[in-house]
Give the backbone structure.
Amino acid sequence: MDRTFFACKQEVFNRGVSPDAFLNELIDWAVNAHSEIFERNNRIDIYSRIVTELGPWESFIHRKAAMLEALRVLGGFESSWDWEAGKDTTNPDSNTPSTEEAGIFQCSANSMNFDDSLSDLLLKETGRTDSETFITTTKSNHPFAIEYCARLIRFTVNHHGPIKHKHINPWLRRDAMLEFMGFLERESKSDESRWPHQDEVDSFYGNPRGLDGEPNAEWEKDNIVKVKPPWQLVTAWDFQPVSGIRIHRECAESLKKILEQIWVSSGHDESRIREWGMHLYAGGYNYRLMRGGTRLSMHSWGCAVDFDSARNAFGDHSPNFGSIPSVLDAFADEGWTWGGDWRTPDGMHWQAATV
Ligand SMILES: [Zn+2]
């Protein structure tokens, strides 16, 4: 992505200006970041701290851009935007790895104690949660470093001196935030159009048709993969355990993100997932005709999923999912189309194809 920065190139204290590479990495991360990182909460957090300079918060994208502006200035204060900043780890006797500040935002491993979601982030990335792994990961894995700090400062303003003592505040720039917002708006729009129109799925997902009305077994073997949700899935019709959702590899990563986001919104709570009906699997890849039609259903390309068919029946004008924003938002954030909005609603159905 080709971006030219003006307002974001303003000086921060005596640290100079942030490199373009850093600004680009911030935006690249934000375009695909989980929305819960920026949502309202009831804590005294980074948003409480900077609302005078950059608020009041008028939209989700405004909040997202304000986070980037806070990180731009914080990165200057903490390390002059040096990804590798931190102490030398070759002499373990002179450091406590858990308190050692590391990387561009100078977070230390003991900050993982603020919330399980912080150590989970490292666990998901590396399979470990020890301090040494935190230090090396936060220096080398830039999206991790950004996401970790963004999440941490939603829990506390006390971990970073420049936030705690409001040293960053005089250097926050509303015009820089608006510049971030412009890039985010432009690029999240292009993100929504990443899926093909449903009349053009053959060229995007390939041709699933075999001979004599049968599915193409070779296409299926090459393209259909299994995505396992973070919770136990059962069939919606007889509640038998399901090991995963069969889906096209082109939209599998996206579905994984959606399910992960729903899991986070539930507070990692299976009983909440069951209240929502997201444990009730009602279909993924399935080579078949459209209901009452002669055309193939989107399920035939493996780019559609169905959940909780009983409470979101075909034709029901007030499907249950209509009252569950955490689920609707998770799919919408990834650009999936919900069938509940259609003239003949199909509330159980989402597809990675536009109509
Ligand atoms: Zn469906």
User: Anything to note?
Assistant: Residues 109 and 131 are 5 Å apart (CA to CA).
